Amino acid sequence: MALDRYQTLMTVVDTGSLTRAAEQLGCTQSAVSHCLDTLEKELGFTVLRRSRAGVQLTGEGERLLPAVRSLLGAAEQLRQTASSIRGLESGTVRIGAFTSVAVHWLPPVLKEFQRDYPRVDFRLFNGDYHDVEQWLTDGSVDVGFVALPCPVDCECIPLMEDRLLAILPKHSRFENYPKFPLIECETEPFISLLESSDHDARRALEAAGVKPNVRFYTKDDYAVIAMVEQGLGVSIMPELLLKGRQYDLQILPLIPEAKRTIGLATAAGDKAGPATRRFSDYIVRYVTEQARRAE
Fold it and tell me: Cα–Cα distance between 126 and 129 in angstroms, integer?
């Protein structure tokens, strides 16, 4: 069994293109195509349909994919463990993160970790809560940031409680309010993330018994902020996402108060490799230090 062929297949699936996969793997497109042809001959069935629009898994390919992810995950764990035994921490850590963590936590942690373990490579996957949970479930990432409670069967470490805040257009009728009553979301135009992404606001509104007057849906956090800045409505955002940036809007605490708990999820049991677990330690230490400084 040639692992490189399965890795090539996985790279093509992740990038959605033979050309982009070749660029990422550092080879030619024809080499990628030949590798896939060889793999399909060995398997005895077609895995990918290729067209000018890109590539798409066949039904057989869809059935094969979980086993491929599991195989490559086990191979990476083996490589990390062997490197650790030799005293050379190396490997590839795949991280799933949502926007606020990707912007505010990952850059400083990655910088410190790379300084101490330059042989470790990283692949970053940025998405919403639903994306990260899916990546953890199917083995696309080794470690993921999640909102707790998390439905995925993983080891979860609570990292931080993060306040939820109301964001409003400047010079709205709430300009002199010290806090924003959630009940106002029933009458004000509300800008929402997609239902699969909007765990935080939905939980806060449901807990308060409020049915928001949703006028717009989007998947992008910063699109929500831009729409509020243009006076299209109000919304609810985590404090970490709003941290360190100047926006042309009003930010108020909520009544009643609401929070989210950010957690770090890794593969259950001994499935996470040494580099992955070491990286998790760095994340926990960084968040703990940031909380101590904020006191």
Answer: 10
**4-13, 155-164, 194-203, 217-226: which range is least confident on average?**
194-203
CA distances from 142 to 86, 110, 242 (A): 22, 15, 27
How many domains, in total, are found in the chain?
Answer: 2
Phi and psi at residue 229, to the nearest 5° = -60, -30
* Residue scoring higher pLDDT (269 or 41): 41
pTM: 0.72
Q: What is the CATH classification number for the domain harbouring 187?
A: 3.40.190.290
Contacts 24+ apart (CB under 8 A), 222-227: 222/99, 224/167, 224/191, 224/192, 224/193, 225/167, 225/249, 227/191
Residue 273 domain-assigned? Answer: no
- In a domain, residue 84? The reply is yes
Q: How far apart are CA 59 and CA 57, in angstroms?
A: 7
Supply the pLDDT for residue 4: 85
> pLDDT for 201-213, tens place per residue?
999 999 999 999 9
Q: Give the structural domain span for 31.
A: 1-88
Inter-residue contact 200 to 238 (CB < 8 Å): yes
CA dist 80 and 67 (Å) reads 20
